[in-house]
Amino acid sequence: MPEITLIQAIRETMREEMRRDESIILLGEDVGNRGGVFLATDGFVEEFGEDRVIDTPLAESLICGVALGAAVNGMRPIAEVQFADFVWPAINQLVGEASKVRYGTNGTKTAPMTIRIPYGGEVRGGLYHSQSIEVLFSHTPGLTVVAPSTPFDAKGLLASAIRANDPVIVLEHKRTYRLVKGYVPSDDYTLPLGRAEIKRPGKDMTVVSYGLILHYVLQAAEIAAAEGIDIEVVDLRTLRPIDAATIVESVSKTGKALIVQEDTPAVSISSEVAAIIAEQCFFDLDGPVMRLGPPEIPAMPFSPLQEAAFMPSPEKMLIAIRKLATL
After folding, report:
1. What's residue 182's pLDDT?
2. Any catalytic annotation for residue 129?
């Protein structure tokens, strides 16, 4: 079981799936000879050829539109949107069309397409290369949205996404690509879509998160443990559908809940998780449901100092954890 980076896990998963199923094609900006801006498809065009690894124009509406057309006609496209910040021209293809294929055809058609989208900040990307766009797609019935935080989860969730018969948005945090390493089996495996995971068991408080921020939560939990606060950490992994059962079971046990995310809190994933807890854990709560996220400003700043002020950090989490622990 080798230890690899998250981007290596994604690369190897796509390579294995393309070897297994000839109906799978790749398309996106620079995915061919360049191997993708993050080298996720490095070496693919040499192995699979230009008929299956397709460099596209700089047009996200085309990338996702062609993927949709290929999907409803028997192929399994994996489309890459180079940065989450560039996805807006493809909203009609994904939210307006792909999400409705099964429903709109009474189940006679499906859209087995995977859309890979690098998202998130702390990479000095500034306003147009740092956005968190998960809530828009997570709001849309008919789309599944996953956000792996570890190489093991990235491989298992991506394999499930590629094999699914409906559209799946795979959000990959750019900062985790080479920062996060983990042990990944070389054997074929999948992870169920829509299932959260307890990344750290605890009894005093539940902290829910996903993506890069999950790792900062784990750091904060270790510091809190030294102070006598035992944190249970829930990794959502899938943002649509959210695994309400795992959240409810955890919060019912601990009695307190904090949701931490990189996206701004208003009308967000944390809003939905807080609503689930309020509705289903009301009589088990020993304190208010708390949320932690960045300030409500239009985008992440470029300045290193301002970027650090924007991002949730273990230090900020500890302040919230200590406050909730005393309530």
Report:
1. 97
2. yes
